Amino acid sequence: MEEVRNQQVIFKDYVNGFPKESDMILTTSATVPLQLPQGSNGVLLKNLYLSCDPYMRGRMTKTEGSYVASFTPGSPITGYGVAKVVESGHSSLKKGDLVWGFTGWQEYSIITAPETLFKIQHTDVPLSYYTGILGMPGMTAYYGFYEICAPKKGEYVFVSAASGAVGQLVGQFAKLTGCYVVGTAGTKEKVELLKTKFGFDEAFNYKEEPNLDASLKRYFPEGIDIYFENVGGKMLEAVLLNMRVNGRISVCGMISQYNLNQEEGVRNLSSIIMKRLLVKGFIVTDHYNLYPKYMEMVIPLIKEEKICYIEDIVEGLESAPKALVGIFSGKNVGKQVVVVARE
Amino acid sequence: MEEVRNQQVIFKDYVNGFPKESDMILTTSATVPLQLPQGSNGVLLKNLYLSCDPYMRGRMTKTEGSYVASFTPGSPITGYGVAKVVESGHSSLKKGDLVWGFTGWQEYSIITAPETLFKIQHTDVPLSYYTGILGMPGMTAYYGFYEICAPKKGEYVFVSAASGAVGQLVGQFAKLTGCYVVGTAGTKEKVELLKTKFGFDEAFNYKEEPNLDASLKRYFPEGIDIYFENVGGKMLEAVLLNMRVNGRISVCGMISQYNLNQEEGVRNLSSIIMKRLLVKGFIVTDHYNLYPKYMEMVIPLIKEEKICYIEDIVEGLESAPKALVGIFSGKNVGKQVVVVARE
Ligand SMILES: NC(=O)c1ccc[n+]([C@@H]2O[C@H](COP(=O)([O-])OP(=O)(O)OC[C@H]3O[C@@H](n4cnc5c(N)ncnc54)[C@H](OP(=O)(O)O)[C@@H]3O)[C@@H](O)[C@H]2O)c1
Ligand SMILES: NC(=O)c1ccc[n+]([C@@H]2O[C@H](COP(=O)([O-])OP(=O)(O)OC[C@H]3O[C@@H](n4cnc5c(N)ncnc54)[C@H](OP(=O)(O)O)[C@@H]3O)[C@@H](O)[C@H]2O)c1
């Protein structure tokens, strides 16, 4: 039985506050037989691209009853990725197939429940897109914007963490719908990208604004119809003051709160009554039934270059811990991807 | 032209913090001709019952762009009431008709836009009910519970300010739907009422609970499907920790915040994501088109004694300021009504 090296990124122990590179360790000593155990109906994957996603912070805390399990100290990090099937014991997949879905931060993974994997149908787009626009973040932008916000032409849309994996898509979807869109992000470079690359009508760096309420009033003199919430905390507090009657808030994420030991209190919730707001949270995995419908929409948009997607790609498993940690301080410009192998 | 005395409760000036009786003055010097001005297509009303409602606190603050205008210093308080038509210049109403709707805190009022008034059809129920179960608070409970929460048999429902004008109805509607219902209120007497009179499964006095999260865990070991939000602040913060996946929060009111100069911050909003919550605010006046449908439902329930309604009735305009102020410290037991005249 052929055994090969299987580099892994191991989760060391539960994390308090901001995660650090040293909360993960690269091991190069493990090996893996390039073959499934006898009788297995799983699949053996060669991992190509791994995705760094904010929800992974929650998995670094010991929690019970969360919608996603904590990482296991001493075991590899797990997360979304793109992979190639090396061997399959499952009727729906065969050797050579490309898939995206849950895998491990290692060179090779055995997936015992391959029905959770999506078989990749379109290979005439960058494969890494299946960690972003064609994967979980894409579905998140699609569901959170179209299904929750029910946007109409001419409405005023605000997006936080706007240059990220999800935000850059929400902004472009909003423009395609005929909305007026403003985004916020944490660096000058990102703000430029929002305006020049993704077509946001306006953008600003929230870190340079002393008064977020005043900033929003400047960009939205008529108020905000739709807020795509990625950050929470003080931004939400300011947005609530600027929502219009019958506004909608798609509560996708609150990344500004993930590393705090106690969440910040948010004021101005009485706007929910006065403005008759809809505030709706969601977890994208509940809505994967809509994935085919989303693909039908987005694949032509990509091919016709009506939408673009920016990735922040680092090479090698050894770069993964730094990349993951980086998203919590905004180091990533666009979707954060780690290349393990290109094929 | 016959002139009669027209006692009035005058709004003195904008209020800071908790309202006081002295923020209103009873004047007995005004008179009114018992006749409409020539050519008027308004109506002259004799006021019978006046309603004390929490939203009136908002009108005591000078605000712009709110969904309801501020009171005018030096003019009578205005609010919901039940009245009899003395003279009508409007085709839809005639002398002797009974109506409910917006009127003044005085013995007689001229209403220049009588199309805002509801003509009372059922007079075989207490007329004062049109300030409560058959008026604005009734519609609020109906819309906020049925339309927003879409309750299902067997679901776990929590109601705050549960013995009040709205809350007592929400609890009873929930029981009629086959839900498990727990209410909270601020005195022992009210807690007893909830259990013995309104049929709540459990009830507790929030003022005696050192840890609201723990209280809710005690009453809802399985969590809360539906929260009917009347109070906001710390209660909402604790509820968020105890919501179940796909829970719904009908954001009706946040009375604990109305007298503060700055709203309290509310933590635990990330539950909105994790639990995929729907949080929906509403203003009942947007939904008065459903009033006939509500009446069809509720009138038989009253007649068949399947629902009951408790009012806290005080006599005379001179008692009105104290009654209104009292609802902000929970003095009222049930719907707070002021009798101006009985016919
Ligand atoms: N509900 C779901 O199913 C679901 C699915 C996917 C993602 N999400 C959520 O969606 C949000 C965006 O995810 P993503 O994948 O698109 O990530 P991302 O935007 O690519 O990366 C995270 C970005 O968040 C910003 N950020 C970090 N800390 C912040 C803070 N304290 N305050 C404000 N901004 C901060 C940084 O950009 P700046 O330079 O702009 O600060 C950073 O680049 C996250 O909250 C995530 O949890 C939810
Ligand atoms: N959205 C709408 O269209 C709409 C329409 C009608 C009413 N509302 C809202 O619905 C809620 C209930 O109104 P209602 O007419 O039924 O009033 P109510 O319950 O009859 O009277 C107010 C009650 O609120 C409670 N309360 C007062 N201050 C409080 C505090 N700091 N913390 C907790 N509870 C407090 C008191 O009862 P305890 O003894 O229990 O403390 C008091 O009796 C209010 O928030 C109101 O603004 C909204």
TrEMBL record, chains A, B:
Keywords attached to this Swiss-Prot or TrEMBL record, sorted alphabetically, are: Oxidoreductase
Show the Gene3D superfamilies listed in the entry.
Medium-chain alcohol dehydrogenases, catalytic domain, NAD(P)-binding Rossmann-like Domain
Care to name a GO molecular-function term for this sequence? 2-alkenal reductase [NAD(P)H] activity
Q: Which InterPro entries match?
A: ADH-like_C, ADH_N_2, ER, GroES-like_sf, MDR_fam, NAD(P)-bd_dom_sf
Query: What SMART domains does the database record attribute to this sequence?
Result: PKS_ER
Protein biosynthesis keyword on record:
no
Give the residue range of the signal peptide: none
Enoyl reductase (ER) domain boundaries: 43-338
- Oxidoreductase as a keyword of this entry, yes or no, is yes
**Any idea what this protein is called?**
Enoyl reductase (ER) domain-containing protein
